[in-house]
Amino acid sequence: MKLCAADAFDLGDACVRGSWASAAPAVVLLIIFASQIHYPLPKVIRRPVDILRAQFGQYLTLHDAEALLATDEKRVSEADGVAEVEVVAAVPLWRTFVFAIVGLVQALAWLSSGAFVLITTHAIWEGVQQFLVAATWLYTVVRPISHPTATPPFDMLAIYVANLGGGILQLGGYLFQHTAYGAPLPSTLSLVGFWLNLVLLVGLLVVVCAMPLGIPSNLVKKSEIGKSVSPEDYTSLWGWVTFRWVYPLVLRGRDTTLNEGDVWNLSPSISSRPIFLKFSSLKSTTLFRRLWAANSFDIIMDFLLTLLSVMFNYAGPFFLKRILDAVDTDNETEKDKGKAYIYASLMFLCSVAKAQCDVQHLWLGRRASTRIRSELMASIYDKALKRLDFSGVIDKEKAKAAAEKKAGHAAEASSATLSKAEQKAKAKAEKSKKEKADDPKPGADTGKIVNLMAGDANRIGMQISGFYFLYGAPMEIIIGSVFLYQLLGLSAFAGFVILLLGWPLNSFLTKRSIRIQKGVLKARDERMGVLTELIGAIKFIKFFAWETRWIDRAMGARANELKWMIKARMNGIGFYVLWLAGPIFISVISFCTYVMLGNQLTIGKAFTAISLFAMIRQPLNVIPNFIVQILQTRVSLNRIAVYLDEPEVTEQVSTLKKGVINPHSLAGEEEDSQLGLENASFKWNEVDEGEDKDKDGKKPASDADSITTAETIGPADHKFELKDISVVFPEGELTLVTGPTASGKTALLMAVLGEMTALPGSGRIIMAKNPSKIDRWGNAHTISYAAQSPWLRHQSIKDNILFGYPYDEERYNAVIDCCALGPDLDMLEDGDATEIGEKGVSLSGGQKARVALARAVYAKSKYVLLDDPLSAVDSHTSRVLYEKCLRGPILANRTVVLVTHHVELVLPGAHYLVRMLDGRIDTQGPVKELRAQGVLDDIKHDAAVEVEKEEAAVAAEEAVGEAEAVAAAVEGEEAAKDAAEKKKPRKLVKDEHREVGGVKWRIYKRYLKASSYYTWAFLAFMVLCSQLLSVGEKLWIKTWGEAYKEPANETSVFGGYRAFGLVDYEIPMDVSHFSHAGMATYELHPTTSGFFDHQWPNASEHPLFYVGVYAAIGFSSALVTILSAVAQITGALRASRLLFKSLLVTVVRATFRFHDTTPQGRMLNRFGKDIETIDTSLSSSLQQVNSSLAGFAAAIITVTVVFPAFLFPASIIGYFYYIYAIGYLNTGRDLRRMESNSRSPIFSDFGELLQGIVTVRAFAAEKRFLDNLHTRIDNTTKMWYTFWMTNRWLLLNFDFLGSLAVLFTSLFSIHFLVNNAGLAGLAITSALNFTSSVYWACRFWTGLELDLNSVERVVEYLELPQEPPAVIESSRPPAYWPSSAANDSLIVAENLTVKYAPDLPAVIQGVSFSLKAGERVGLLGRTGSGKSTLAMSILRFTDPSSGRILIDGIDITTVGVEDLRGRLTFIPQDATLFSGTLRENLDPFNEHDDATCLDVLQRVQMISRSSHASQATSTAASPDPSRPASPSPADTTESVISAALTEVDSKTVVTLDTQVSAGGTNFSQGQRQLIAMARALLRRSAIVVLDEATSSVDFKTDAKIQTTIREEFTDSLLLTIAHRLKTVIDYDRLLVLDKGQVVEFDTPHNLLQKDDGIFRGMCLKSGYFGDLEGAARAKAEKDGLL
């Protein structure tokens, strides 16, 4: 190409230089104009162009995000559009003036110069060049005047940069020509002009770079920018290019420990709420497409900048070859030197440009990653708020497995008769079934949903931020291949045959890795499911001394997970072998082919080719590695997509789905201003699995108010349904819903709330939620609801009652009064500011019920649904609630639906009554009409006794709370010392502890010990071998070079020059964690003499010998790396196994106090994220630090030996490295620790929400919960994002320092090392290796500290306060202990004093008593008297501070707690069931046969005698019956046991194989208590402690339970914490406590005779004194005491 009659690239020609200097800005100007003009496009092209343009559109700009936030906060209706955001951008006049004046002066100067050239020299083209430059300057005059901007004008910036490049080219050309060739300089005026031009351009660039990138809107306080508001959006262009905006935080973090307030908030454009609002408005068919639409700009720009970065990366070796060629001459001229200096400068500029490309593309990738993570987490939470409630659904897979197991024998027998073809088909079906076994299925449980949020969303986000590996790798391979082709011709590609040969193995391993990944995720879900259940029911497990059994169960799930992890690691090693051996084979085969074809492999070719193969090695490794990662990410994406596609509730139920309501929209819809059902039939929600449904596979029933059937196959398996329900609850009146246990009362409320599945062809729900519609009484058209099992949040009592509604003092006080909470709050030290623990641990059952009731009543809602709140309170409180609450002004004119057994109490105030029976409405109508028909008497009779039954429940429940009330004082120890001061309410749950400073040595030691010191000794040896082999490789290549007789004068060019922007540590993959492969590829191979002074053969004649030895060294290197990986995996798995077990045992054996004050989410975070880190990345981080430090040491030694002069600039650069590294390490450590801690509340809250989703939806509070989640996501994301921004800042600075180091070395080499290219090359690449090693050591060290943060958090839990030892081998009680034989002192307390802490007052004070074997003793006392504490002391949950308790003559403090609790039985108030079969719940250790288990179920009325008989018979007849026999209705009628449950027996079958869902939610409360009672009967302990717990069972069943207790526990000492006087009035003795002392201890009859007795006072207050006295007298007469 010709230009100015010379070659277009001959920059020695002034005209050519002028052409390029004018063409560049002119082309920029043309592009600017072209982009402003909109051309009419043909239809064919228009659509693709529009699609392409859409991909480059900014998804969410700063001001769009602010507008979305403002709109959402104001809850503007969609019709009103998006809120406006005002941005006042005042453009300083001086700036416009500077741009215009400088532009004008430049334009005039260039025009004058052009005219002068044309007139004087007639060189037309040279004149035109100057006019072109003048035109570009004229644009810069007009632009700031016509379109002034306060932000950087990027069009003008592009013109300035182009002109600056042109100016440097022209002036530099003249200077170079003058210095190198002695060419004359232009005139002084021209030189001054050139210099002035450059100075003005630099000045203008400074002005542009100082302009801010964004202008704050009216919503942003300018004074807060850089404090609470992120400076990222408002920093100057220079601040952005250099990432200086991050530095203030690094500076603060370097010198002090950062706290949450020190870290600025996220920019609105990456905040969760605006992102999610925009994301949820995208209309795309699949989740993948929505994610692409939301992040296409970032991903595409990341891709383009990565390609640019790769090009700049390869420019380094390109210029390095030119430098070495210029230096490597015998007679070096000024021209050569000058060229070398230019190349050194260009190499520096290219590496700086590469650093800038890297930092920008990594920022874009990280932004996409952050957004995707937030989008997915918010979508998962949003879905949880809208999806059907599956909490009671049993684990269908377990049920199927049980059914298959039973059918197994039959199948085995029949398979022998199958033909070969049939057997083959069967085997194939089995295999495909196995492969699909771990595919994601709908119906996710809590554990899995939390995992989706914690694991899968995070994995997808991390994958996006590492995508640039995949973009860059093909480009690197292409460039490398082109260079190789130039060197070796087609022989270079002979080695690539290996890739084709290895492909089948690669695809096999890839397929296997997907299967394994599914298995790992499923196993992890299962393990987290077991742990969630274990931690949720830890108290119950402790009562029954089942810790060991549950630890084994969790370890079983863990073993399964480890099995999959080992498979994943072995698969990873398979990949590793493939990737390491591949490049070595490629280079060896290529050399062999080249030599065999008769070519001479000269030293230059050999060195360059080896270096190029080394360069291609990493991208070749990355591609298959990343394909695996993408496939694994697809698994995660699929899991989330399946979950997001699960069925949802209707718009009628979910306010989120309805969106913002227009207040006028429902004015005319009168029918929906009522509440009720019309011809509706419902079933419980169940998972619809489509293809899983087959002819005999039944779906699980799920029922919170009726028995759930076992998944048995056959007609006996009926499911609970509500049939043909029509009811409209009278407006503004009280409606009663009553009926026996399991008749469908709760189900009726659920159906009205829309929480059940309507059967096909069913009627409709009459219900509409419209918060903006207010009736004349001031109540909104919304619902409030109090569930039977109160769902309380982990907040203060006040916050629970307010539930997000505004605080109205008068109303609040009225609610407290009418819900009888006043006395409770007075008793609590912090009143209504008392924090409620998770699941309400710090309150008694009655208090929980009344707080939930208060919440429902406080909300100004028109409809109030109350599910049996009276069952948890005594008769006195019931009356208060009835009179003050149900009949009081607070519920006047509101439609109240009350489920209750207390018909007689509530009937006078009720307007309407509904009686349920077997899922149908048996009777309904206004109370007056029913009274007239005489129906009421029957209903009243059925329910009358309920009142007596539940009479003292509140006292009861309060007693449970009493232990906690005193325990709460433990937390107030400091407060107690400081009583004078006014205290803040104490926190029941402490804020999560955060370590400060560097990771302590003991943490390293703990991990090294857990993974075995031998492992690390072996790994250290392997690192040494690896470095020795690396040195050996260089020495061998040097020897190879010398073995040619005439070494060619070619230098080693492509010295494996890998810049360290490609960040291995960021690859979010399991397999990449083995080691850091890119460390030893920075070496050049100069030819120097001597290797053992051995006479080697001639390389020209015996090339294969050298190739062979080179190959041997390569394969040895690969072997060392693989052995390191195997050792590392072994150590990692050993450590994670040991640490997990230690953590599990410590948490399970921790004290009650710890479990009461620690949220489950916090514990689960340790078991989830932290254990996952220890499982996956920790050991590799440690190994990478070792490798990079070894590389660093090797580089330092090389530099010192070869080129001591470099140590001077190195020490200066090293100082900056140190300063930056310290700042980064300290800041990064704090940020990651805060990120870990801020992650826990997300999962705690999420778990809490999933349990209370029905309540949240009923109150229409979903939006508030979603907003709260956005805040929490932003809180954790800001730590995570800011950490990565500090990392980008470090990368940019280190890249720049690295470039400087290379520049200095290059300049030194050019100046001093004349005709010694080898030494020059070694010096330069050693400099490269030095800086990269420092960078990687720093990066990996941070990574290691972050990973060790997980060990730190686990170790923190390994030091928890523990209960006394489970078993004391030297003091094991005898097998018969405690003996139930005649023993007058089975339990003896001697001077017993119990304190919760040494400096707190005693709760039990000097108590002494003695209890006999076989007697029944009631434990009574007012709230706070110490009943529960005394009972807990017998089970050794608190040890005495003085005195002792003897059981059958043995001091209980000398016996292990497992031995003690295993010999006693405690029946708590809240029955807890676990997932599994009913049999596993009754007898987890398989100590009893089926007949015994069925027998206890029959005794507690869970099954009738008929079904017991039929099941026992069928069990006896066939060991594995295919299904239980159906009970015969005739038998049921004959049965002596006529419990209410037998009515249900005809339609439900309970067998020992009935599946129980986690928490037993598929059984009603009453049934759960019956099962708990059966479990206790089965244990037959000599001592039974019973915390009276029958408030949710109907009266008939309760009576039977009491009879059962009396008949079955005759040999046992029964100690009952009594809440109902009627229960214990016929006991042998009663022990009455008051203020921690025994005040009365005698027979009931004797106590009633004491005039001022506390017990007598209780009986008088109960209102049933006559009945109680009669019962006590009868008992005394029976015992012969009267």
Automatic annotation (TrEMBL):
Annotated Basic and acidic residues bias: 424-442, 692-702
Region (Disordered): 424-444, 687-710, 1508-1533
Keywords for this protein: ATP-binding, Membrane, Nucleotide-binding, Transmembrane, Transmembrane helix, Transport
Molecular functions per Gene Ontology: ABC-type transporter activity; ATP binding; ATP hydrolysis activity
Residue intervals of the ABC transporter domain: 702-943, 1387-1660
Listed InterPro entries: AAA+_ATPase (IPR003593), ABC1_TM_dom (IPR011527), ABC1_TM_sf (IPR036640), ABC_transporter-like_ATP-bd (IPR003439), ABC_transporter-like_CS (IPR017871), ABC_transporter_C-like (IPR050173), P-loop_NTPase (IPR027417)
Subcellular localization: Membrane
Bilayer-spanning residue ranges: 20-39, 97-121, 157-176, 188-213, 299-320, 467-485, 491-509, 573-597, 1013-1032, 1104-1126, 1192-1225, 1289-1313
Residue ranges occupied by any ABC transmembrane type-1 domain in the UniProt entry: 303-632, 1106-1346
GO cellular component, one term: membrane
Pfam families reported in the protein's UniProt record: ABC_membrane, ABC_tran
Name of the protein: Multidrug resistance-associated ABC transporter protein
Bias type Low complexity, positions: 1508-1520
Keyword Nucleotide-binding among UniProt keywords: yes
Stored SMART domains: AAA
